[in-house]
């Protein structure tokens, strides 16, 4: 009992529930995974899952090291926000221009992206999403409270990164199922274009908010 209390903060269940509910809400990472998994299946998307989990872990680490750091470095946060919007537009543009092709189910996908590219795309998607920074900052400060220990923060962080990785792998594995692939065979390019459109909307929304707030600060 003492070990459990030492490892898990009193609000751990609330944190775990809030974090999982947030995962159920489709965001840029989900649509990126959907676009890649539909075409490249598990082997071409698993690296994305790892990259996304690492990106989430990086923000959690930043919160643990210094909860106020992300709020203090305004210019850094603004730069991440701007780059994130451009990054989503770039990925969305490529998915939006997906060509109509029929998936070959009995052969390996010849154009499957390499593991390095998958990792970088997933990492970029997570790190360049400013909402991740704010989400973890709020989650680990407001919910856990000021009396949380470093060990409890670390255990909570490892839990959330593991859940992100497991959830994303489950999503990709489902889309990669042969039965699902057969149903999607003639509609892959449509899924990719929808995913691309959604990512561009996310990116455009981030840029619009960025420039709107910038204009408001320059011309109050």
Model description:
With 220 residues, the chain is an all-alpha fold. The protein is built from 11 helices and no strands.
Keywords:
single chain; about 220 residues; mainly alpha; 11 helices; globular
How are the elements arranged and paired?
Blueprint: H1 2-7, H2 12-24, H3 28-40, H4 46-65, H5 69-72, H6 74-96, H7 115-127, H8 130-143, H9 150-175, H10 178-184, H11 188-218
Helix pairs in contact: 2-9, 3-9, 3-11, 4-7, 4-8, 4-9, 6-11
Compact description:
The chain is mainly alpha-helical.
Taken as a percent bin, the fraction of beta residues is under 5%
Uncertain runs are 101-110
Order of helices and strands: HHHHHHHHHHH
Distance between the terminal alpha carbons, to the nearest Å?
56 Å
Global structural class: mainly alpha
What is the number of helical segments per DSSP (H or I, 4+ residues)?
Answer: 11
Question: How would you describe the shape?
Answer: globular
**Quaternary structure state of the chains depicted:** single chain
Strand segment tally: 0
Main beta sheet, described? none
> Whole-number radius of gyration?
19 Å
């Amino acid at each position: 009992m003492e070990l459990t209390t030492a490892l898990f903060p009193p609000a751990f269940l609330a944190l775990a529930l809030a974090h999982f509910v947030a995962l159920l809400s489709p965001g840029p990472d989900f649509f990126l995974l959907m676009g890649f998994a539909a075409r490249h299946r598990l082997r071409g998307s698993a690296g994305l899952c790892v990259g996304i989990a690492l990106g989430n872990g990086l923000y959690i680490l930043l919160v643990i090291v210094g909860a106020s750091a992300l709020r203090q470095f305004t210019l850094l946060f603004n730069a991440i926000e701007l780059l994130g919007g451009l990054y989503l537009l770039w990925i969305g543009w490529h998915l939006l221009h997906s060509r109509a092709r029929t998936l070959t189910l009995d052969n390996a996908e010849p154009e499957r992206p390499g593991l390095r590219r998958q990792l970088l795309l997933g990492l970029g998607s997570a790190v360049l999403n400013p909402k991740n920074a704010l989400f973890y900052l709020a989650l680990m400060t407001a919910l856990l409270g000021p009396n949380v220990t470093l060990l409890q923060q670390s255990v909570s962080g490892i839990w959330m990164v593991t859940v992100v990785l497991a959830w994303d792998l489950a999503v990709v594995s489902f889309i990669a199922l042969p039965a699902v692939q057969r149903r999607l065979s003639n509609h892959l390019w449509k899924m990719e274009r929808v995913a691309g459109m959604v990512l561009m909307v996310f990116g455009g929304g981030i840029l619009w908010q960025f420039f709107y707030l910038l204009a408001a600060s320059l011309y109050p």
